[in-house]
Amino acid sequence: MHEPRGDLMCDEQTDRRPEDAESPPAADEASSSETHPETEAASGAHIRQEWLRAVAWAGGATGAAILVWLAWTWITWPDVGALRADNPATTAFIEMYRESQREQGRGEAVDWTWVPYDEISSNLKRVVVASEDTEFFFHDGFSEHELREALKKAVREREAPRGASTITQQLAKNLWLSPRRTLTRKLREGILTRQLESELSKERILELYLNLVELGPGVYGAEAAARRYFGIAATDLSLRQAAMLAAALPRPKRWNPTSDSEYYARRVDRILEIERQLEYLDRYIGTPAPASVHVDPPAIEDPSEMESP
């Protein structure tokens, strides 16, 4: 018998085609490209966890910021009760004026002289109440009537409500706040207004207000304004002179006794008209005071005409 030749065996092996070899099932290839429901659920849970962590972090940061703000507000909150006996050394509005002057490279001095309540003419007290807050002696810091009127005006003119502030609210803002109309500022103003009304008498509130309000660029209080514009003390102001100062209150940098604005002049007459109608002022403030005989402004020498020593 002849033994099989080795070359025949090789030929048989080489005759086998590659396609004869087993191929992986097509189903396995398809299954490898599919996403399992378990994988989708895990991905969704991960996204939710990340979102919840972000929300928790934002909530924690917000809460921390609120706590810091509350702590700072508590620490810096003014001692309202101290105003029963002490006069303020400065105000927020005076400091803002000084800062503005410094930024412009100008002098930061202000014209401001404090005088007690009895040294301010009843004429000025009457016209200020007439022009700024006719319910001053009857409310607890806020005037519902003025607020309604301000809202009506805002609807008519299609703008945010303005001009509803009482004398007490204006005092709180001048002393401690800023002109910015933010929610936090209005909240602080409301609390401080309540405190002023509960801690101080109406007379003291009016005294503070008349000594602190701006009545011209860098001119604060009744005494400084009376001497600047009329050359007299605040106690000697006539009714019309007082009305000229009161008319300046909304825009003291533009409206004051040196202004030639027709609107300002009409405002002076309107204030005098309202003052005449408020008969209760005789009881709460006193009757109109007669004008001082000495009302001429003081003579001011021209430096260029002064003799050299």
Strand percent estimate: under 5%
Q: How large is the count of helical segments?
A: 13
How far the N terminus sits from the C terminus, by CA atoms, comes to 156 Å
From the spread of the alpha carbons, the general shape counts as elongated
Number of strands: 2
Helical residue percent band: 40-55%
Unreliable spans are 4-15, 293-309
Strands ordered across the widest β-sheet: 1-2
**Helix-strand pattern:** HHHHEHHHHHEHHHH
Structural class: mainly alpha
Write the layout of secondary structure elements.
Elements: H1 6-14, H2 26-33, H3 37-76, H4 92-103, E1 111-112, H5 122-132, H6 144-157, H7 167-176, H8 183-199, H9 202-212, E2 219-220, H10 222-230, H11 239-246, H12 262-277, H13 281-284
Parallel strand pairs: 1-2
Question: In summary, what is this structure?
Answer:
The protein has 309 residues and is mostly helical.
Keywords:
single chain, 309 residues, mainly alpha, two-stranded parallel ribbon, 13 helices
